[in-house]
Amino acid sequence: MLFPKVPSFMTHTQLRSQLQQINNIFNCSVNIVPHNGRTYTTSNQAQPISFVPNSVPPSENELAELQDLIRKSKRLLVLTGAGLSTESGIPDYRSEGVGLYARSNNRPVQYTDFLNKAEIRQRYWARNFVGWPRFSSFSPNVSHHVLNEWERVGKVHWLVTQNVDALHFKAGSKRLTELHGSAHRVECLSCENKMSRNEMQELIISQNHEWHASSIEMAPDGDVTLTWEQVEGFTVPPCQKCGGIVKPEIVFFGANVKKNIVNFVYERVAESDAILVAGSSLEVYSGFRFVNRAHDQKKPVAIVSIGKTRADKIANIKINAKCGDVLSAISI
User: Fold this and answer.
1) CB 249: neighbour CB atoms within 10 A?
2) Is the pTM of this model over 0.85?
């Protein structure tokens, strides 16, 4: 297959470095070839390696315990995290060996830096712009579809996701709170004008005809890795109504979920009779607090997630296996 044209400003050393990233992330052999007078990278295989950590299939006893909890629940609250979307090809941050933190020194932008530093906003939007076509193309996996079906038949009272990939929305879920927002929406921080991320993409293209860059590595929010040299010359469009700063409608690291959203989810927890966590380590307090509240209310807690979680000690059931393998095995 042909990868995109190599930017003319990349040095040979930079190109070789990027090809090494490709080889590390994709199960393929990548080379540099001339084609119609231009230089391209080629690969003999396009299948990316899995971002799902190694695990063993769930046991029959584990599935039976979860089946019993789900069967008894009449108002189930489900909380999902990045581990649910890894089976769609989106990496998470913390998974051992395959998460972003294990594979890269790239770290999410802090909210205060985004607000206060124009160069940080420029770099963020350049990286987000390059990553958007791929990030927006991801599709729901079996877990998203199973949870949508559970909602359709009345098993799921409410679904809360920490993910910003909109895959639950794509799967059809309606009783849904996107706790950390959605990368598919953009907002102005001054006048609160909103637009779709696709509209923002077209706006960026209109103001960056001569700017080009490419990257392979992707973060859970669609961010990619670019050097400061690659970012040079990139123009960040301001709000088209007031000229203010625009950002994806997501909760950046260092920022807080809005109080009205937190209170809304607390109300859904109070109405529920059990909570199921799928694909989250619960290391971020914004999600853990709801599990802790359910536990305080003496409601059973089940966790399906590979690796340790912050709530393992308070969980009634913990299954250390792929969400897709577990959820698809439950009958309702």
Assistant:
1) 18
2) no
21-67 per-position pLDDT tens digit: 444 443 443 343 343 343 333 333 334 457 787 789 999 999 999 99
Using the predicted structure, report yes or no on whether residue 2 has a pLDDT greater than 80: no
| Residues 287, 257: Cα–Cα separation, whole Å | 10
pLDDT at residue 33, rounded to an integer: 38
Look-up of token digits 């205060």: 112
The number of residues making up the chain comes to 332
Identify the three-state secondary structure at position 10: coil
**Secondary structure letter of residue 115 according to DSSP:** H
Strands lying side by side in the sheet with 194-196: 194-196, 181-188, 246-250
Q: Is the CB of residue 31 less than 8 Å from the CB of residue 41?
A: yes
CA 201 distance to own-chain centroid: 19
Please report the pLDDT score of residue 107 as a whole number.
64
Phi, psi of 216 (to 5 degrees): -105, -50
Longest CA span, the chain: 68
Q: Which residue has the tokens 């230089």?
A: 39
- Could you tell me which residues come within 8 angstroms of residue 214 by beta carbon, excluding any fewer than 6 positions away? 3, 4, 6, 7, 18, 130
Q: At residue 84, does pLDDT exceed 60?
A: yes
Return the SS3 of 273: coil
Active-site residue, from 144, 145, 168, 180: 180
Q: Which of 100, 101, 124, 102 is nearest to 112 (CA)?
A: 124
- Sheet of 76-80, strand order: 176-178, 156-161, 76-80, 274-278, 301-304, 317-319
Q: Are 292 and 314 a contacting pair, CB within 8 Å?
A: yes
Catalytic (active site) residue 180: yes
pLDDT tens digits along 150-193 = 999 999 999 999 999 999 999 999 999 999 999 999 999 999 99
